[in-house]
Amino acid sequence: MQGNHEQQAYDRGITIFSPDGRLYQVEYAREAVERGSPTVGVRTAEGVVLAADRQLRSPLIERESIEKIHSVDNHIGIASAGHVADARQLVDHARQQAQLEQLRYGEEIGVETLTKAVTDHIQQYTQVGGARPFGVALLIGGIEDGQPRLFEADPSGTPYEWQAVAVGGGHTSIREHLEEEYDPELDQEAGIKLALEALAAEHDELKPEGVHVSSVTVDDPTFSTVDTEVVAGYVEELGLGGEEDE
């Protein structure tokens, strides 16, 4: 019982380390991310692909109202897993940073610069009393100096750069699939297919209308959504749609 009381004391204090060097509130924020539907990012030789599973809590919900992938600037997009409301706050912050860069220097913000601005903001909420960490993980992808870049921002405020990554529920099995199948020389179409296959590794089947896929390439550095009809074609080609494709 004494151990439980001690843990509860550290639970309540976001700014207090436990004796074994843990910040429990940050760990709980990571658990919130785990409860979210999965999101995948793939960096290809041609660009970056972001794909997110949009699960419906009810058939009465309009699927388009579930926003998990956002355009931040023409050349950068952000995908999230975890608390959607927290993600929207961070996306708004990212957009402000992108606009400030344009106003101050007359140029587009770099993907790495934007990522570090966002993670610095996230990290502040692990040091301030009376606030809680953001319960969301972000994948930030775009084109910088003619090169595709892909970063993850976790609830601790730590930035990681990846070739391919998954966050959210089932990310462990999805990452295993990415590690087995990823090739740095993938073209953009192959990157989209890999992202869909990775999401399917956590589900028995994929419904094209339930997957949001966005893409940005070096040749066309404009972050845009891949049409549902195109996604449906890939799902059918790869046999990811379950019995309906048989």
Q: Spatial order of the strands in the main sheet?
A: 8-1-2-9-10
Helix content: 25-40%
Whole-number mean pLDDT: 90
Measured between the Cα atoms of the first and last residue, the distance is: 56 Å
Architecture blueprint of SSEs:
Blueprint: H1 2-12, H2 24-34, E1 39-43, E2 47-53, E3 69-73, E4 76-82, H3 84-105, H4 111-124, E5 136-144, E6 147-153, E7 159-161, E8 164-167, H5 171-181, H6 188-200, E9 211-217, E10 224-225, H7 228-238
Antiparallel strand pairs: 1-2, 1-8, 2-9, 3-4, 4-5, 5-6, 6-7, 9-10
Helix pairs in contact: 3-4, 5-6
Question: Concise description?
Answer:
The chain is of the alpha+beta class. It contains seven helices and ten strands.
Q: Would you mind describing this structure in some detail?
A:
With 246 residues, the protein is an alpha+beta fold. The protein is 38% helix and 23% strand. The chain has a 5-stranded antiparallel β-sheet. α3 packs across α4 (111-124). The N and C termini lie far apart (56 Å).
Descriptive tags:
246 residues, Glutamine Phosphoribosylpyrophosphate, subunit 1, domain 1, 5-stranded antiparallel sheet, globular, alpha+beta
